[in-house]
Amino acid sequence: AAKRRQLGVLVYDTSMDTRSSASLSLLSELRVAIEQEELRLYVQPKVDLKTGQVLGGEALVRWLHPQRGLVPPMQFIPFAEQTGFIRQITVWMLETGVQALQRWQEAGLSMKLSINLSTRDLLDPTLTDRVRGLLDRHRVSAAWLCLEITESAIMDDPARALQTLQKLHELGVRLSIDDFGTGYSSLAYLKRLPVDELKIDRSFVTNMERDLDDARIVQSTIGLAHNLGLTVVAEGVETDKAWALLARLGCDEGQGYGIGRPMPSAEFLGWVRRWEA
Ligand code: C2E
Ligand code: CA
Ligand code: CA
Ligand code: CA
Question: What is the atom index within ligand 1 of the atom nearest the CA of 235?
Fold first, then answer.
């Protein structure tokens, strides 16, 4: 029965009380996951939509659970955010991601890696020093690291988010607004953020061929980003037609199943060589 309960709680449910025994058991499983090195860093390629060149990738976490197999992030990231455990996951992703960047550099490739931050990370006063320390230790230039933050994470506590983003920006890492268009973002606020990139949420991109409103949202987001001097990235590029339409609308970069699915980071360099061959 104990085992069944342990496996049963792995699927996160928003009604779950973070103090319940099921929740405590998931939390202890996550601690074990980090100690036993059960987390995996997957990378999904990002390409230049005009030239097709691979510009780098986005780091996405997976949990290789001994019984469950590969657990997707939506089954534990929201819980980790709610309990604060996300900070340990972010630290692990940053360490593993910067190591990957060092390997890419040593292989002679100039590619960027994007890592996702959560609301909690933006409130962590030690984050910038930690990132600086990692980049120094692995001799990776800050310009190769990009940090993705969702609109809603920023709007949770805009003043503190701005402080953290400013420090990260001074360090020289790239900053990206993730899932753009899904939260309520104040454009006036956006203008003041030291960001370099906007990512158009997948929901608009996957619907734009069928839905004229979504196509207009994509088009105006590209215009907005460019007017603010930002690079614009489309997520959810699933077809060649979507790629062609986005390129025609002037979108700079793309990411999606039609280009490449997230893959174990060890397979990424081989994928890049095959793509460019
Ligand atoms: P996200 O940051 O918006 O990441 C993009 C998600 O879209 C990924 O799902 C990716 O596999 C998926 N995706 C990419 N291209 C396509 C496509 O063409 N079609 C479809 N249907 N899906 C596509 P994944 O890896 O399951 O991650 C889901 C979410 O979990 C992420 O959304 C992010 O919010 C969160 N997440 C993942 N890894 C981390 C992490 O290390 N830290 C934090 N804080 N959150 C993470
Ligand atoms: Ca992201
Ligand atoms: Ca996204
Ligand atoms: Ca998303």
Answer: 15
